[in-house]
């Protein structure tokens, strides 16, 4: 794989952004021509567009890089509930590719196209990916609670009105874990008499508690996702490693928690969230200390399951890649033969642009480039 790194990354970049461009056009068509008349049909069709787009990187991770998630899950819960009901996902925000592991797993459950998230408002203006999320009706927040609580209430009703099960991801820590942010989080916890977490930042409870009144009655469960990579792993879990065809080994423990377990009172719900993250911290600590999520965490052990890559993701990638490469080669060859140097170099420029966009996206996903919000705003963490 390493010898094909440059060529492979170019092919991935061209396929990803070309697919995204046409998905954007399809989404826009649905919003203009279908949604005003039949919202249910619009959202059903939207699933397939977003699924096709997300599949590009799922295919890269599984079929190109050979990465596979080891999932610890209750078989009975999986059979009875997973992807058969709306859910709110709570996940530790520690790694550069934690979102990609969620895509891989939800692809196996059958609801990848309806996996959504709370996200920073600025992200919806990012070309291709941000536009896909915007038109797929993600919940975009300003990080201004007075504004956000109104958006949360309105958008939750929209998201959970979809005809098929939707899983909505909430990173309650507010930003990705870094040593600097963790240091600020520990200091804040000590000052406020809150539990000190070893592997997480203090959860921001406002968004969670603001969501609860609307969630009750339309979203029956929380799906707690605990993701870990071995600290001595030879390959760093990053987007760059996946684009280079290097295999990573994610470990994930997922459990279903009925929403009815969360207290209705706002302060009690906030306290429940703090206690919940203490348990999540023990689960991750157990993994790093013993290699098992269960040995010292006090959580009931469940079996591990590895899902085979789905052929659909590979065929989706091959289909988009074939169309892209065929069109590009045809135009380059005909332009060269006809002496159309403007057209020829225009194609070269577009290829360079796509490659540059991919490099920028990879750079932006690095932990060192993550938001400083967590460190700067630690004094608001548990408000």
UniProtKB/TrEMBL annotation:
Signal sequence annotation: none
Residue ranges of coiled coil: none
Gene Ontology annotations for the cellular component aspect, listed alphabetically: endomembrane system
A GO term for molecular function: 1-acylglycerol-3-phosphate O-acyltransferase activity
Keywords linked to the UniProt accession: Acyltransferase, Membrane, Transferase, Transmembrane, Transmembrane helix
Segments passing through the bilayer: 12-33, 45-65, 122-141, 314-333, 339-358
SMART domains assigned to the protein according to its UniProt record, in alphabetical order: PlsC (SM00563)
Top-rank taxon, per record: Eukaryota
Domain Phospholipid/glycerol acyltransferase: 87-209
Family indicated by similarity: Belongs to the 1-acyl-sn-glycerol-3-phosphate acyltransferase family.
Name of the molecule in the record: Blast:1-acyl-sn-glycerol-3-phosphate acyltransferase gamma
């Amino acid at each position: 794989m390493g010898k094909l790194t440059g060529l492979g990354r170019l092919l991935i970049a061209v396929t990803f952004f070309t697919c995204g461009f046409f998905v954007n056009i399809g989404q826009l068509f649905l919003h203009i021509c279908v949604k005003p008349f039949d919202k249910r049909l619009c959202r059903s069709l939207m699933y397939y567009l977003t699924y096709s787009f997300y599949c590009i990187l799922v295919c890269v991770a599984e079929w190109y890089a050979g990465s596979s998630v080891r999932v610890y899950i209750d078989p009975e819960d999986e059979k009875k509930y997973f992807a058969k009901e709306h859910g709110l996902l709570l996940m530790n925000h520690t790694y550069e590719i934690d979102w990609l592991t969620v895509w891989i797993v939800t692809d196996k459950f059958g609801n990848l196209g309806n996996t959504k998230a709370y996200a920073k408002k600025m992200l919806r203006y990012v070309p291709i990916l941000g536009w896909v999320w915007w038109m797929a009706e993600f919940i975009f927040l300003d990080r201004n609670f007075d504004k956000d609580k109104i958006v949360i209430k309105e958008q939750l009703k929209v998201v959970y009105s979809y005809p098929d099960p939707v899983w909505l991801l909430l990173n309650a820590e507010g930003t990705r874990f870094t040593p600097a942010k963790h240091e600020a989080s520990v200091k804040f916890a000590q000052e406020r008499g809150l539990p000190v977490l070893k592997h997480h930042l203090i959860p921001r409870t406002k968004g969670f508690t603001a969501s609860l009144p609307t969630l009750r009655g339309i979203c029956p469960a929380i799906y707690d996702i605990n993701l870990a990579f071995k600290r001595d792993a030879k390959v760093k879990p990053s987007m760059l490693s996946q684009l280079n065809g290097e295999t990573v080994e994610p470990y994930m423990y997922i459990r279903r928690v009925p929403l009815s377990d969360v207290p209705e009172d706002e302060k009690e719900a906030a306290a429940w969230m703090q206690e919940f993250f203490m348990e999540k911290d023990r689960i991750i600590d157990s993994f790093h200390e013993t290699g098992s999520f269960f040995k010292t965490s006090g959580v009931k052990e469940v079996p591990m399951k590895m899902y085979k890559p789905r052929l659909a993701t590979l065929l989706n990638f091959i289909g988009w890649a074939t169309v892209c490469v065929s069109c590009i080669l045809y135009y380059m060859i005909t332009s060269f033969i006809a002496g159309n140097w403007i057209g020829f170099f225009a194609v070269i420029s577009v290829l360079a642009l796509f490659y540059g966009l991919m490099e920028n996206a990879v750079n932006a996903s690095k932990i060192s480039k993550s938001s400083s919000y967590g460190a700067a705003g630690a004094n608001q963490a548990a408000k």
